[in-house]
Q: What sequence folds into this?
């Protein structure tokens, strides 16, 4: 059972104030005005009577917030964040050694066991795409939410999603070049997950195994979730790219991994506890494809949460939002 998310109001205010000072300034993309973010928190304030003996407390509500609140993406002086490191594993699927980046909690210890989030990059990316981009605030969001007790300390694994056995093959906008992305399900399930589970001190099972991805990674997140829902309890597809079902967009003709009427969970399948699909309202790359996925999932009776991120493009605003909301849903 996850810890209910409660922080004392004073602590919240102090953190909120320091978060306003701790800044994301100087970065190419500013998220939202901090006053906007902070006012949205007011909904969760409980009175002393409601909390019984406890001091007036702040409780984050379980609703989706379009933007990651500033308080969770800020670099706080009092929180120790994990660092990304790099590892390798032998992939029987690809018949070669492959790399991944891994974010371990700052005080990672073999005496504890941690849930794991597998986080999938976009097209042309690799295992460094997330770990080398400081603007996505992954370390901060995961570290702050754990520090505040919303989630348990969590390991984040960022694989290379291009699962090919041909070292000369390169990604591109044609069916052949895209195939290794669709093959990643095999590498993930048969090679990477067993490696992570044997090399690190992790909790196993769907309750402790999360899957998220951006764009091409969002597309594979949906595909993998529909194929293997018993493996992942908490899932978020951020700005998922076209091609799960047949279509033609400005980049290429997609044959489709599955047909539209297959965009659902198998009869009797255990579905994820949380399955989020989201996208920015101004996404200039995948446009309305994520919304179409939502409509297909709806039409086929596959439970999920759909939301749009007002003003976000195909960018870190969407990534931060999806990551925050996934972790926030896990906390309930
Ligand atoms: C496409 C449009 C977008 C596509 C992939 C993408 C393979 C992926 C974008 C990204 O990962 O950022 O037609 O086809």
A:
């Amino acid at each position: 059972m996850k810890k209910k998310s409660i922080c004392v109001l004073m602590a919240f205010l102090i953190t909120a104030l320091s978060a306003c000072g701790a800044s994301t300034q100087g970065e190419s993309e500013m998220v939202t005005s901090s006053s906007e973010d902070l006012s949205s928190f007011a909904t969760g304030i409980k009175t002393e009577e409601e909390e019984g003996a406890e001091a007036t407390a702040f409780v984050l509500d379980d609703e989706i917030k379009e933007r990651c609140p500033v308080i969770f993406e800020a670099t706080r002086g009092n929180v120790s964040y994990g660092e990304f490191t790099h590892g390798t594993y032998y992939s029987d699927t690809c018949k070669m050694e492959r790399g991944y980046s891994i974010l371990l909690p700052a005080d990672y210890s073999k005496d504890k066991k941690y849930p794991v989030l597998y986080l999938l990059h976009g097209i042309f990316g690799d295992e460094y795409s997330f770990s080398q981009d400081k603007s996505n605030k992954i370390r901060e969001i995961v570290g702050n939410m754990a520090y505040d007790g919303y989630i348990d300390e969590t390991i984040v694994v960022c694989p290379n999603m291009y699962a090919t056995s041909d070292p000369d093959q390169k990604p591109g906008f044609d069916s052949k070049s895209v195939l290794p992305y669709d093959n990643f399900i095999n590498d993930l399930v048969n090679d990477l997950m067993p490696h992570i589970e044997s090399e690190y001190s992790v909790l196993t099972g769907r309750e402790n195994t999360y899957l998220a991805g951006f764009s091409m990674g969002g597309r594979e997140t949906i595909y993998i979730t529909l194929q293997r829902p018993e493996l992942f309890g908490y899932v978020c597809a951020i700005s998922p790219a076209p091609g799960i079902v047949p279509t033609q967009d400005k980049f290429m003709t997609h044959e489709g991994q599955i047909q539209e009427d297959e965009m659902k969970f198998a009869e009797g399948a255990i579905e994820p506890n949380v399955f989020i699909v989201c996208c920015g309202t101004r996404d200039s790359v995948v446009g309305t494809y994520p919304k179409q996925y939502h409509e297909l999932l709806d039409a086929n009776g596959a439970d999920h949460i759909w939301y749009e991120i007002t003003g976000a493009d195909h960018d870190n605003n969407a990534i931060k939002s999806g990551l925050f909301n996934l972790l926030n849903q896990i906390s309930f």
Notes: The pocket of FER is lined by residues 122-123, 173, 178, 215-216, 241-243, 249, 251-252, 285-286 (CB under 6 Å).
